[in-house]
Design brief:
Helix content is 57%, strand content 5%. By secondary structure, it is mainly alpha-helical. A two-stranded antiparallel sheet has the order 1-2.
């Protein structure tokens, strides 16, 4: 799935045991906000320095997301 066509608002929800949607707990909401900000910052940087390929872009964003989640859990 190409990364570049993904654009626009998204909704992230939690799930109850019965399968209904629910609000995220505070930790998950914090992780989602941190990753979203990093994605915005990275997309801005890519205007000047685009990734070499879609695969490189995905790897870069996933590495940043892992970093954000690890650092926000400390």
């Amino acid at each position: 799935m190409p990364l570049y066509p993904l654009a626009g608002p998204i909704v992230i929800t939690g799930r109850t045991t019965s399968g209904d949607t629910a609000a995220l707990d505070k930790d998950l909401a914090h992780h989602a906000k941190a990753v979203a900000q990093t994605v915005r910052d990275t997309l801005t940087e890519w205007r000047e320095r685009p990734p070499a390929s879609n695969e490189a872009a995905i790897k870069e964003l996933l590495a940043y997301a892992a970093r954000d989640i690890a650092s926000s859990g400390q």
